Task: structure prediction
Amino acid sequence: MTAANKPTEDILVRDVFGIDSDMKVKGFAEASDRVPAIDPTYKFDPDTTLAILAGFAYNRRVMIQGYHGTGKSTHIEQVAA
Result:
């Protein structure tokens, strides 16, 4: 990943995801055409969201499991959005 492709902005989890956490993650200042659209009605599950964000922050794998149609892919999309 080149320097131009690395996230540079500090994002407060509390402000963006509405989760009671002091966690900060890196993000991009502007969305590219590869970023999914934000769904303003999406409700983030706090534990799953924090696990996903910790995986991004520490470059670790996170396993999200559940039955088909339960929102696993949508959750990842909305965290990325």
Summary: The chain has one domain: 3-80.
